[in-house]
Amino acid sequence: MVTIMPFDPKKFIAGSLEDIKKTIRDKKAITAVSGGVDSFVAATLANKAVPGQLIVVYVDNGLMRKDETAKVKKAAESVGMDLNVVDARKRFLDALAGATDPEKKRKIIGELFVRIFEEEAKKAKGKGVDFLIQGTIAPDWIESGGLGRDTIKSHHNVGGLPEKMDLKLCEPLRELYKHEVRMVGRELGLPEPIFNRQPFPGPALAVRIVGEVSEEKVKIVQEACDIVETEMDAASLSGRMEKPWQYFAALLPSKTVGVRGDERAYQYTIVVRAVRSLDGMTASFSYIPHETLEKISTRITNEIRSVGRVVYDITNKPPGTIEME
Hints:
Layout: H1 9-24, E1 28-32, H2 37-49, E2 54-60, H3 68-78, E3 83-87, H4 89-96, H5 102-123, E4 129-133, H6 138-143, E5 168-170, H7 178-187, H8 192-195, H9 215-237, E6 246-260, E7 263-276, E8 284-285, H10 290-303, E9 307-312
Parallel strand pairs: 1-2, 1-4, 2-3, 4-5, 7-9
Antiparallel strand pairs: 6-7, 7-8
């Protein structure tokens, strides 16, 4: 009989710090922070392992959640992290123009991220930057077709990476699942809003916009996601519902007929998604109280004038994925 030992975050941290030191040695590294738990935990480990050798970069790609840049800056300050913010909003939107295939969008985003990190590495003074530290976790490479598996979707930080890169990869969380990353974050002393934050996709809102991405659609999804998060957070805090593992809004590419006042309207449809999960590999849709769904629908259709219909997704994973693309 095989005995499975429980995950020990203290033991993992000790081993990870040694591995990072052996990998980076006396070189410099650049690490990406996106606001999610994976990137923050990876950056915190690297900062402890090779202090003074790390350049922490947050890329504002124009596809982040509402007010995300300000929130990431505040979170970085709370853990003493020196953050370099790169405004690449126009570059990402221009690169995604005309792209409708989900895999193509992911690869565009993955390559552009790497190119920006390479540019930032070249700007670094002193010794050259040789490494890129990422918060890649097990589901990222498993779903991207790792170890001969079928590709479910190419995660931008795995399948979306370009074949030729100037930087070598260092991925300290590669073998962990989301709940284990949270345990490491707690053990590292990160604030609860960071280590317990709901998952957010690397390609950001690009995979919550089905089809072509545009500035108008990004703004719609930012507002809709903010409403979903606000209302579900309030409902869970009041004890009216269990807080989902992940919850958000997505935009469908087609419009449907509705009514605005006494006039016919032709408007977008928003899909609300909320799931229960442990590691993201499988998921079940969450049971949301009708009054909460009604409040979300009313707010979205009243506050976002280009949206005329809201639906709730009750698909499990499998057969669906958690995100729309």
